[in-house]
Amino acid sequence: MKILNSVENIDTFIKENRFSIIYFSSNSCGVCIGLLPKIQQLLKAYPRINYAKVEVDKAKEAAAKFSVFTLPCIIGFIDETEIIREARFISIIELEKKIKRYYELME
Question: Is the pTM of this model over 0.90?
């Protein structure tokens, strides 16, 4: 998973990828560490989605810009527009339903 640690890198990543998902986490967040492999496994089924991770400990300004107040937080973008936002208690099943719906619309 690509790691983005600046607002500029995140903005570029979102602009360069039609469908992107950003995973905001912290190395001190046990839930974030435990959820990451599940997110990666889920996204393997969607090859046209580009995803990256932001470590908010190293990119506090990015968390502020994207209004991330709790971790973990997942934000999805299509054509630079936010379409999905899940935070804190993230249900993989519900997240997959949302991703699948938008993914199928892109086909």
Answer: yes
